[in-house]
Design brief:
Strand content: 15-25%
Number of strands: 6
Shape: elongated
Helix content: 40-55%
Distance between the termini: 16 Å
Structural class: alpha+beta
Order of helices and strands: EHHEEEEHHEHHHHH
Number of helices: 9
Largest sheet: 6 strands, mixed
Length: 215
């Protein structure tokens, strides 16, 4: 199991020099910015990855969204397209108060307005600008965010290999000579305490190998 970056993310930069998603991220708290960054990075390494992280937008051909659940029931959504082998981060939508029924109509209107931006002439005149990983380096979160993303993608790959080979959790635990609870922790995408040796043993149990390299 090797984790190349399948779809590098770049910020969309408008002809005016405006960078909507980057500017918005910089306006957030470090905690929210880190959570959204973890999800974008996971999509970079795990593409194509489905829900609950990522989905195509119905009625918006070629547009996708990355959805991040934040503390307090808030939801952040990043709209992007795939262009020249890059994930171009176009726009964003921030649902601050999902329980406020009275503001849902307004939120829907704002969401549609932001989606409409992705089809405007400004988008066509813009370009794919700064790499997202360079932004993370500037923020000092590159190493941590990359580690989270790779662990998530490895967990996704292990689960997919088990499903493909019809390996139950009971059988997988037997092959690893471990308990179901330990296996659940290994397969948990959010568990960042799993060691490389544990991942290598799990890969071997499904007939794969774990490849790690410095680049």
């Amino acid at each position: 199991m090797r984790i190349p970056k399948r779809l590098p993310a770049r910020f969309f930069e408008a002809e005016t020099g405006n960078v909507p998603v980057r500017d918005w991220l910089l306006s957030l708290t470090p905690e929210d910015r880190k959570a959204i960054g973890d999800d974008i990075r996971t999509a970079e390494f795990g593409w194509p990855v489905g829900m609950p992280l990522c989905r195509s937008l119905k009625g918006r051909k070629g547009l996708w969204e990355i959805r991040t659940n934040l503390n307090g029931g808030r939801i952040a959504r990043i709209f992007f397209c795939a262009h020249d082998s890059n994930m171009v981060l176009l726009s964003w939508f921030y649902q601050k108060d999902p329980e406020d029924a009275g503001s849902r109509t307004g939120r829907r209107g704002e969401e549609n307005e932001r989606l409409a931006m992705t089809k405007s002439a400004d988008i066509e005149k813009g370009k794919a600008g700064q790499l997202f990983e360079d932004f993370l380096k500037d923020q000092g979160t590159y190493e941590e965010t990359t580690a989270v993303a790779i662990k998530r993608v490895l967990a996704f790959q292990l689960a997919a290999a088990m499903k493909e080979q019809d390996i139950s959790k009971v059988e997988m635990a037997r092959r690893l000579q471990t308990s179901r609870s330990q296996l659940d922790r290994l397969l948990d995408p959010e568990n960042d305490t799993v060691t490389l040796s544990a991942l290598a043993r799990a890969a071997k149990a499904v007939g794969r190998s774990l490849s790690v390299e410095l680049v």
